[in-house]
Amino acid sequence: MLSSCGRQSSSRLGQISRHIGHQRRSLVGYTKTQLPLNTGTEIPALGFGTWQDKGAQEDAVAEALKVGYRHIDTARVYGTEPGVAKGVEKSNIPRSDIFITTKLWNNSHHPDDVEKACDASLKDLQTDYIDLYLMHWPSPFARSDKLMPKKDDKIVAGDSDFVDTYKAMEKLVESGKCRAIGVSNFSKAELERLLKETSIVPAAHQIELHPYLIQADFAEWHKSKGIHITQYSPFGNSNPIYDKGENLGKFIDDPVLKDIGRKYSKSGAQVALAWGIAKGKSFSNCKYLSVLPVSFRHPHNTSSGRCLSSPDSSTGRSVIPKSKTPSRIKANFEGDFKLDAEDIHKIDGLDKKMRFNDPSESFGWNFYADLDGKQA
Ligand SMILES: NC(=O)c1ccc[n+]([C@@H]2O[C@H](COP(=O)([O-])OP(=O)(O)OC[C@H]3O[C@@H](n4cnc5c(N)ncnc54)[C@H](OP(=O)(O)O)[C@@H]3O)[C@@H](O)[C@H]2O)c1
């Protein structure tokens, strides 16, 4: 991995670090777990997902913010950016107290389209910056105003290279439109190539990960690279859109999770969230970003010795449960609690390499080729 700092001119770096200097590193008054990103800022470990139920998201987001969530996950393709903006407005919580992630959709991978797509998200989110902007998938669709450009009912693939797309995203960090960038749904080989050929180490990789799809080696690899993992679909097949493993039963009802839950007076769902957060945490002392290998450092981070809350080189793991149901929104927020090591270990044993989200066929791209759960 080439040092990103080495590739930036000092004046460009100076410009960027001045910009970063104005950013708040962590959310003031937030009492739940926050985890360091390789940018030097922090992300609340418990976020709020907004995929599906578009019409319900304004109220759901407002409710989530009222309950205490300060990390909201959306995406251009979900159509929920306007609902998120309205929910934030309704909540009366200042924008600066909320960590917002959104994602670049596949129809905008051409480098000339990336800034335009980001601007559209900024407009719908009614904000002038995005905390974390992710490339939703490595796979390009044809350039189009349509989210799903189709011919004969099949999605038309594009020819943009995800490396070029990411390089265009890097410019959004320089301009201040995005405070951090990252990716989602990449295989290990795709991510390795990205690390070799681009300047900014992704701050986060958003992937399907839950107790039935643990991906222990891949998760460890992220730690070694200083890339935060955001676990999507943390309740796996509770999402009704997933049709794999129909006879499996909902994993949040798995007897092991429920049994562990009884010990803490928590549900299986809450235990699954606590497990995700625990797996990304450090188990030893805090370290200083300045002593991390240079390959972990973000080109914008000039920090010299800020104590990170993470123990080793890990930048932690966040979980982003979605719910439109007020009682569940509240209950899920109580999923940020400490599990004993023996319970974490028991949950590790539940792995079924069961992947629920794989649109390879419809997107015309062989996703996750080198990852667990490909054949499930
Ligand atoms: N990057 C990507 O490609 C990608 C892919 C998938 C998801 N995501 C992100 O990750 C977020 C979460 O994933 P997800 O939406 O797939 O699924 P999820 O959060 O794992 O599960 C959501 C489903 O579980 C139900 N639920 C929520 N809390 C519950 C509880 N305490 N007990 C029982 N059921 C509960 C919800 O129902 P109700 O809403 O009816 O309460 C909903 O049907 C998404 O919303 C999105 O932001 C990203």
UniProtKB/TrEMBL annotation:
- List the residue ranges forming a coiled coil, or say none: none
Biased composition (Polar residues) is annotated at 1-14, 301-317
Q: Function, please?
A: Catalyzes the initial reaction in the xylose utilization pathway by reducing D-xylose into xylitol. Xylose is a major component of hemicelluloses such as xylan. Most fungi utilize D-xylose via three enzymatic reactions, xylose reductase (XR), xylitol dehydrogenase (XDH), and xylulokinase, to form xylulose 5-phosphate, which enters pentose phosphate pathway.
Domain NADP-dependent oxidoreductase residues, every copy: 46-351
**Entry-linked InterPro entries:** AKR, Aldo/ket_reductase_CS, NAD(P)_OxRdtase_dom_sf, NADP_OxRdtase_dom
What chemistry does it catalyse, as a reaction equation? xylitol + NADP(+) = D-xylose + NADPH + H(+); xylitol + NAD(+) = D-xylose + NADH + H(+)
Organism placement in taxonomy: Eukaryota, Fungi, Dikarya, Ascomycota, Pezizomycotina
- Please give the residue ranges the record annotates as the region Disordered: 1-20, 300-324
EC code(s) of this entry: 1.1.1.307
Protein name listed in UniProt? D-xylose reductase [NAD(P)H]
Return one GO MF term.
oxidoreductase activity, acting on the CH-OH group of donors, NAD or NADP as acceptor
Mention any Pfam family matching this sequence: Aldo_ket_red
Q: Which UniProt keywords apply?
A: Oxidoreductase
